[in-house]
Amino acid sequence: PFDKLSTTKKEDRVIEEKRELFRTVLNSNAEYNSLCRKACKATLFDNRDYSKYYNIRQGEDLLRSLEIFENTKKTVIIDEILYNYSYNPNSISHNYKPQDYEHIFTPIEETFKLVDRLSVFTKDDFAFSYNCRLKILVENLQGIAFLKTTISKKVELLKIIKKHDYYKRFANADKYGLLKKGKHLLLFKMHKNNFLYTISIIVIINII
After folding, report:
1. Which of 114, 107, 109 is nearest to 58 (CA)?
2. Burial letters for 7-20: b for 16+ Cβ neighbours within 10 Å, e otherwise?
3. Average pLDDT of the chain, as a whole number
4. Lowest model confidence (mean pLDDT) among 95-99, 104-108, 113-117, 137-141
5. Which residue, among 158, 107, 154, 153, has the nearest Cα to 133 in the 3D structure?
6. What is the pLDDT of residue 85?
7. Least confident of 141-150, 154-163, 193-202
8. Residue 204, pLDDT score
């Protein structure tokens, strides 16, 4: 609601380095994903073919933003309202289901792949971003553990997730020592194909 917006205007933030731009995008909780929050030059779009992502119904704005992020030389984050977003609790965006993981995983993985290709992150950047994203991934696993379905269906969903490039990226992130800490241990157990343990420990953690 507009009456709850801060009346204190923040200074514009100017980003001219790709490293800072992608750190901002990947370490946030989707604040910079939406196209409706961007005003950019038409020349930043390079006519990329997105047809292989036709099934993505959440996160498509981030996918479409990748060419903007790659082609821009300067990004300015302003404290101005450019778009009046109408919140709809019944929309697709607000009715995410754990089995729809691909709609969330694919756009983030494609962003990481772009960062890989542009070679803009340091080892510490990757470790920090992976840690931020691991928290969200664990939440996805928690959602699956509490689905109103059979154990076999839950295990099936976990196996499908394990095949996704996004999950494999975090399995490889074990070199940063992230997967054996706290709730991230769940991913380590998944990596070892211990799916039933993963589901059981999630339930126990949330009960206690």
Report:
1. 107
2. eeeeeeeebeebee
3. 77
4. 95-99
5. 107
6. 73
7. 193-202
8. 44
Q: Measured between alpha carbons, how far is 117 from 16 in angstroms, rounded to an integer?
A: 18
Q: Which residue has the higher pLDDT, 141 or 61?
A: 61
Helix (H) or strand (E) holding 76: strand 75-77
Can you give the pTM of this predicted structure? 0.78
The number of CA neighbours under 13 Å toward the Cβ of 36 is 7
Q: What DSSP string describes 104-146?
A: HHHHHHHHHHHHHHHT---HHHHHHHHHHHHHHHHHHHHHHHT
Say how many CA atoms lie within 13 Å of 7 toward its Cβ. 1
Classify the C-alpha dihedral 176-177-183-189 as positive or negative: positive
Residue 154, class by beta-carbon neighbours within 10 Å (0-12 exposed, 13-18 middle, 19+ buried)? buried
Rg value, the chain, Cα: 19
